[in-house]
Amino acid sequence: MIRYTNATKIYESAAKKVVAVDNVTMHVEEGQICVFLGPSGCGKTTLLRMTNKLIPKTSGTIEIGGKEIDTLNVIELRRSIGYVIQQVGLFPNMTIEQNIGVVPNLLGWDRVKIKKRYEYLMELVGLNPDEYRKRYPWELSGGQQQRVGVARALAADPPVMLMDEPFGALDPIIRERLQNEFLNIQKNVKKTILFVSHDIDEALKLGDTIAIFREGKLMQFGRKDEILASPANEFVEEFIGSERMLKRMSLGTVGDLIRSMGGLSAKSGIVPMNRSNAVDIQTNLRTALSVVLSSPHGEAYVVDEEEKLLGVLRLADFHAYARTLSPLKSSG
Amino acid sequence: MKLAVDQLIKWTLIVLAFCALIWAYYYGAFDFILEYPDDFRFLVMQHLKLIGLSGILAIIVAVPLGILVTRPGFKKLQWFVVNFANIGQTIPSLAVLALAMSYLGIGFQTAVFGLWINSLLPIIRNTIVGIENVDAAVLDAGRGMGMSPRQILFKLELPNALYAIMAGIRTSMVINVGTAALAFLIGGGGLGDLIFTGISLNDMGIMLSGAIPVIFLALIIDFLIGGIEKLIVPKGLQRNIKLI
Q1: Best of B135, B145, B165 to disrupt the A interface by mutation (most A CBs within 10 Å)?
Q2: Which pTM was predicted?
Q3: How far is it, in rounded angstroms, from Cα B229 to Cα B103?
Q4: CATH number 3.40.50.300 given to A2-241
Q5: Exposed, middle or buried, A323 (CB in 10 Å: 0-12/13-18/19+)?
Q6: Residue of chain A nearest B233, judged by CA positions
Q7: pLDDT confidence tier of residue A61, bands split at 50, 70 and 90
Q8: Inter-chain contact B135–A85, Cβ cutoff 8 Å?
Q9: Which is more confident, A308 or B193?
Q10: Complex prediction ipTM
Q11: Shortest CB distance from A75 goes to which of B140, B148, B237?
């Protein structure tokens, strides 16, 4: 869907030459979220902005849906790409409804269709359409503003979305809530999304694939488990941190473990089941492991959707599951 | 609390203005107005023409000029334009009028020209500052969503700068009312006619019959532009605008 071939951006001044993006070649498939990850100044935002030509590339090609972006009209290109930024950038002179209607208006949709779209999108991002219709951006909290920002980017139903640290400025609780909602929305809308982040946990949570950058160079691009299992070099290994196995655990759920192990041990303990020592099959394995470690008898009860007991998880189960995964490799 | 203080100041000013009126009445300020209503009306109209013409010309020139020098291709002109307008403002208004007179001779047109030069700066400067202060994230979002430079100017930059632009126009116009009283000195007429005649004749009554209408004209124009401001500045920006 989005293909970079030797994409390069060089900033040249009389004094020096800075290569902001250096020969990046990669391909993001349709309907996937690819997280551009790396420290600040690594070129991830530059590459994102090259994609909708906010920054003109120096050389190489960028294709979206098989078309080189230079062959397209820049205004039409941008209208077909959703754009969300960290500072949100809602238009203060317009109401929430007008903000969301900006691109549909530019595209000349009729009023009824824009109104319907507004209502649909507000429901999608969890805000009451009628309550906010005539409100102005300054009346909303940071989290609400970014919900509107996401709705606005989705307004004309673009196949591609560019998101530049959209949740970076929010406090941790709101950020996590928005990340979860964002994943739910993506399940419905199935956009091809490029998502810039500097946070490895956010990347592991949201991304299907991850591209790690350093000083303009693409260090590694792959599925997140691939990157955790076999980092391409020391930089990637260092960037993803020392608890790689724990992070891999966060990628799977209790359900995955049950499938891979072919069942669970029967209940043995005499400790009564309660909220603090029970997990369900949707729980990610990292959280489940924490429950096992904190329970007094070293067991976590696994329940299904109807809270029916399926069995127990012990530390040994995690160990066995970890051995079924591809082995961890070190870069050096 | 802030609102209560605002109200207090507002009412104190109204009471003071009322006292001043009574005081002026005792000096016979209104004798001239009542005795020669046609002359008075003529001078008021002349004054209005001076400020109206110079003000409208200033807006027509200053706002587009301010917009022009914030466009990417013309940024280098900004220094020149701001300094040019700065000079117009820094030189005392009387000197501007005098200089204008030495080139254009005496009369109404010269006065309009001098007042026009004097009115440019606040509008140009506020237009530039207003446009440059529009949040960079707003413009980035607009560009990224596919707005053309023209749409960005008319849908984002100007509406969001309108509060500052209107404030510049308001300041400029109110100062203009006072400065226009000097037009008399270069034969431009207006209410300055009464003020300076009153001073020469040492007649408080005639002097005040020119001065007090000038004050009221300034207040009325300030109030009117304030009203227009409320009408045309986007509602989303009006949390900054207090009571007039």
Answers
A1: B145
A2: 0.85
A3: 37
A4: yes
A5: exposed
A6: A93
A7: very high
A8: no
A9: B193
A10: 0.86
A11: B148
